[in-house]
Automatic annotation (TrEMBL), chain A:
Residues 145-240 form the Acyl-CoA oxidase/dehydrogenase middle domain. It comes from Cyprinus carpio carpio. This is Short-chain specific acyl-CoA dehydrogenase, mitochondrial. PROSITE patterns: ACYL_COA_DH_1 (PS00072), ACYL_COA_DH_2 (PS00073). Keywords: FAD, Flavoprotein, Oxidoreductase, Transit peptide. The lineage of its organism: Eukaryota, Metazoa, Chordata, Craniata, Vertebrata. InterPro entries: Acyl-CoA_DH_CS, Acyl-CoA_Oxase/DH_mid-dom, Acyl-CoA_Oxase/DH_mid-dom_sf, AcylCo_DH-like_C, AcylCo_DH/oxidase_C, AcylCoA_DH/ox_N, AcylCoA_DH/ox_N_sf, AcylCoA_DH/oxidase_NM_dom_sf.
Automatic annotation (TrEMBL), chain B:
Coiled coil: none annotated. SMART domains: ETF. One of its GO terms (molecular function) is electron transfer activity. PANTHER family: ELECTRON TRANSFER FLAVOPROTEIN BETA-SUBUNIT, ELECTRON TRANSFER FLAVOPROTEIN SUBUNIT BETA. The keyword Chloroplast does not apply. It comes from the Eukaryota. It holds the Pfam family ETF. Its main location: mitochondrion. This is Electron transfer flavoprotein subunit beta. GO terms for biological process: amino acid catabolic process; fatty acid beta-oxidation using acyl-CoA dehydrogenase. It comes from Cyprinus carpio carpio. Belongs to the ETF beta-subunit/FixA family. Residues 35-227 form the Electron transfer flavoprotein alpha/beta-subunit N-terminal domain.
Amino acid sequence: MAALFKARRALGMAVGHGVRCLNQLAELPELHQMMRQTCRDYAQKELAPIAAQLDKDHKFPAKQIQELGGMGVMAVEVPESLGGAGMDYLAYCLAVEELSRGCASTGVIVSVNNSLYLGPILKFGTEEQKKQWITPFTTGKKVGCFALSEPGNGSDAGAASTLAQQEGNEWVLNGTKAWITNCWDASATIIFATTDKSLRHKGISAFLVPMPHPGLSLGKKEDKLGIQASSTANIILEDCRIPLSNMLGERGMGFKIAMQTLDSGRLGIAAQALGIAQAALDCAADYAHKRTAFGALIGKLQFKLADMAFAIESARLLTWRAAMLRDAKKPFTKEAAMAKLGASEAATFVSHQAIQVLGGMGYVTDMPAERHYRDTCITEIYEGTSEIQRLVIANNILKEYQQ
Amino acid sequence: MLPLRFRRVTMSARVLVGVKRVIDYAVKIRVKPDRTGVVTDGVKHSMNPFCEIAVEEAVKLKEKKLVKEVVAVSCGPQQVQETIRTALAMGADRGIHVEVSGKDYETLGPLQVSKIFAALAKKEQADLIILGKQAIDDDCNQTGQMTAALLDWPQGTFASEVTLEADKLKVVREIDGGLETIKIKLPAVVTADLRLNTPRYATLPNIMKAKKKKIVNVKPADLGVDVSSRLEVLKVDEPPQRQSGVKVETVHDLVEKLKEAGRI
């Protein structure tokens, strides 16, 4: 009798959890709806009006980042004890999407700080490291960055040529990191360097380095196609000395830390892509309404809008599901890769079609369509190119069918 | 050393804030085909902007430790709980949902709402009521004034600045002629105008805390209030379509045209 009761209770809990998951897909829980609305309000009132100017001026939105820090958005998943909002990853994805809908650059600044900087320290850091490297970075006054890519290797992350050698009670770092988002505005970075070349990707370790720091210098800011308000540049390490206690995780764990971090980080980018795509759709649909008053609505225009909305909604559900799997501590690598692939390809498609809908107006800076088009290109490249995502998905599928 | 009277009033001061759920300001309003009202189904609703300012002022007073508790109140059907929760996320301590639905809700107006507030003020032993100066759907600008009258409390309406000075409230009012400063004794009713403050965005930790705060359900009958309306809406129409103008060549022609139209 007791066993039956236990079994029924377990089933009830499993069904309840499953039902909750399904419910979340149908309609978000009230908590998430409220925070989504607050981020949407902020993006509409504070980000959207200045996004075009920030892009033109290549200006880091310091005031807005501090305000977002005050709202808890710069450290969504960080527990309250460390200064964060203590919410889940689904909430974080919703926040990034809504903010990116207002300004794509702000979205990526928030995403990099949350997923690529705070994320790995939260997961692999010691209690001391968490206090030192997390708490000051939750307020928006300081942001962090993530230095994995090098001029010689992007997708091939295991071939890190940046070296870290132990000299007494210090690590000495030498090498160059490339394409580092946030670096000109960051106060700390996580650097991935080879500690044992013979072990190849198992010989890479992760290091926490404050910025500025002797031996660490920044290359010139890249002049990018889009997301101009966020800085991107090389980080050059020349005899950069840091204490031994600055190693994140254990020696040789670097590659694993990077890959796991990117698994989550790509959901942040998926959310950013969704936000930009939604902004592009808003622009196109609004314009389509106004144009029909003067002439007949071309049939193909309606189909375009339908395709755009469908692409966004599909990618959004994939993103939510991957986030919920992560929150439930279930494997989510395949789903995260699908979400990033789906969302970034949807974003480039939608933003391109938005220009088509606007015609000539889509090509000029008077309307935001051209900025969305420029902003979306990068979503298919960073945190794992679309090609890499396909590899990840394929590997997972082959494993599933291997038996 | 603050006078005992003042300390008694403010250290345990309770503020009631009214929050109304209205159609969002950015929505394009459409009249229902039967012309009995506007379309509300499936339309985005949010807290009345002046009510947001009222909540912000109350929360600010609490942060300055000038009041002890902020209670958010809303009258309407189940959906107004969202509006109360938004107030809780901004920093209110608890909520009261006065259940009014169906036909009663459609005809709910300032007279009934002010009676409800007056009854609640007595029941909750409130020291201060802060309301938005008006709602953006009916633009009545009556509830605050009526509530004060029913309670026989002083009122500071169209407030653009509120300061607590001893046991009095100094209110700077925005009036047609400029700014008027008055001093009123607590308990009092204040209605918030646009420039009183800039409402805060709900922070994520506060949204989480709001979930645990209590919202109590109350019926108008429990407060001894009859919500039946003394007004009947005959019809609702869109504003007249803007007509195209006429260009004239000379001032003489202008005068002629104005005479023709019976304007002069």
